[in-house]
Automatic annotation (TrEMBL):
Belongs to the multi antimicrobial extrusion (MATE) (TC 2.A.66.1) family. This is Putative MATE family efflux protein. The chain crosses the membrane at residues 46-66, 87-108, 128-150, 162-183, 262-288, 300-323, 343-364, 371-391, 397-419. It comes from Saccharothrix texasensis. Pfam families: MatE. Keywords: Cell membrane, Membrane, Transmembrane, Transmembrane helix, Transport. One of its GO terms (molecular function) is xenobiotic transmembrane transporter activity. It is a multi-pass membrane protein. One of its GO terms (cellular component) is plasma membrane.
Length: 433
């Protein structure tokens, strides 16, 4: 019988990854806290624009998660140089896709914001923020690719330093540009782009220091896109859910969309905090399967499930205690504060479920079981989230209906990933799958 993976090793991978994962939501959380004091209308504009930008990044997570899955197996098999070369190709893909995002985003920013926000001043504010924020897209994607290959070779310390640089710069610049320079909502977008450029530059420097070929390799990029297909389809399910939720909230009231923005950004932040365990799971499971240690990978899947459950319980208890004071950090608008409790207690109660789901997502992603995760996420969205969200719009259930949909989505995912993990069908050894 193989030994358990030492908890110290899990924490050593998860703790630095936690800060890295939280980088993008932290940009928007800082924006939310700073912009929230401009009033409900700029906050609502940030809510719509922030959801659109976040969905672009969410849609392209294969640059991070798919790269980790491929590099971890190669690293586990003792082929580190080839693992790093996967990162080179992921970086080229990030630059190409990022340039495309800028072009299409500028063309579609107006129609997308009006579709999501219902037109009017909310949509106008969203477009003003989004047109600037989009210029950071290639750099966000390069950072994702850099995180992916570094996680695969179990180097989580350098990404931590690179992301801290970006977040520190954004946190300092955002209030200066928004309030000090009187740039308003647009100032927060400028601060983010500057920070994202600097972080991406540090990841590029790290690749050059590895002394591997930096030339594009269409064959490897095609292979990465093959795995990315399933992850993109999975991300589409998330996109449909959260865009629908933001759209229904925007059509409820300005207070409701502002409240949804505050709670959703906290949810996104905590989801990625919990996902730090998934990053450790990806790296450890991928390396174990690459080294043909199947039983160790299966044993670790249940070990990390327990960690995720306890982590989620602790976070739920913490944010239950903060239900009174924390929302006031983000806004003083009475209409927004009155709506926040309608979503807050769903957010708190879902943390233990999320802890298990995200941990097992990491196990299955590390094993390259993307096809199953695609199908499970699409089914959970179609049967759980979307029906309740749009019923909320039809029957006027507001944020209670929207967050009931998120709860159904998470419970369905929990059942499906537990059944899959128990089956053991995901644990295929070797450097390919």
């Amino acid at each position: 019988m193989e030994e358990r993976v030492p908890a110290r090793r899990v924490v050593g991978l998860a703790a630095p990854a936690l800060v890295v994962l939280a980088a993008e939501p932290l940009y928007v959380l800082v924006d939310t806290a700073v912009v929230g004091h401009l009033g409900a209308l700029p906050l609502a504009g940030l809510a719509v624009g922030g959801v659109l930008f976040t969905q672009v990044a969410t849609q392209l997570t294969f640059l991070s998660y798919g790269t980790t899955a491929r590099t971890a197996r190669l690293f586990g098999a003792g082929r580190r140089r080839e693992a790093v070369e996967e990162g080179v190709q992921a970086t080229w893909l990030a630059l190409a896709v990022g340039a495309l995002v800028i072009v299409l985003g500028q063309l579609l920013a107006g129609p997308a914001a009006r579709l999501l926000g219902g037109g009017g001043e909310v949509a106008d504010n969203a477009v003003a923020w989004l047109r600037i924020a989009l210029f950071g897209a290639p750099f966000v994607l390069v950072t994702m690719a850099g995180n992916g290959w570094m996680r695969g070779v179990q180097d989580t310390r350098r990404p931590l330093r690179y992301v801290l640089v970006g977040n520190a710069i954004s946190a300092v610049l955002c209030p200066i540009l928004v309030h000090g320079a009187h740039w308003g909502l647009e100032g927060s977008a400028v601060a983010n782009v500057i920070a994202q450029v600097l972080s991406a530059g540090l990841f590029g420097k790290a690749l050059r220091s590895e002394r591997v070929s930096l030339r594009p390799d269409p064959r490897r990029m095609k292979a990465q896109l093959g795995l990315g297909r399933d992850l993109v389809l999975r991300s589409l399910a998330f996109q449909a859910c959260f865009l629908s939720a933001a759209s229904v909230a925007a059509r409820t009231s300005v207070g409701a969309v502002g409240a949804h923005q505050v709670v959703l950004q906290l949810w996104t932040f905590l989801a990625l905090v919990l996902d730090s365990l998934a990053i450790a799971a990806q790296s450890i499971v991928g390396a174990a399967l690459g080294a043909e240690r199947r039983e160790q990978a299966r044993r670790f899947a249940w070990q990390v499930t327990g960690y995720g459950l306890w982590f989620g319980v602790l976070l739920g208890a913490l944010f239950a205690a903060l239900a009174g004071p924390l929302p006031q950090v983000f806004t003083t608008d009475r209409a927004v504060l009155d709506e926040i409790p309608h979503a807050w207690w769903f957010f708190v109660g879902l943390q233990p479920i999320a802890g298990v789901v995200f941990a097992l997502d990491g196990v299955l992603l590390g094993a390259g079981d993307a096809a199953f995760l695609r199908t499970a996420t699409l089914a959970s969205a179609a049967l759980g989230f979307l029906p309740l969200v749009w019923a909320s719009y039809a029957f006027g259930w507001g944020l209670v209906g929207i967050w009931s949909g998120l709860s159904a989505f998470m419970v369905l995912r929990l059942v499906l990933v537990l059944v899959r993990t128990k089956s053991g069908k995901w644990a295929r050894v070797g450097t390919t799958w």
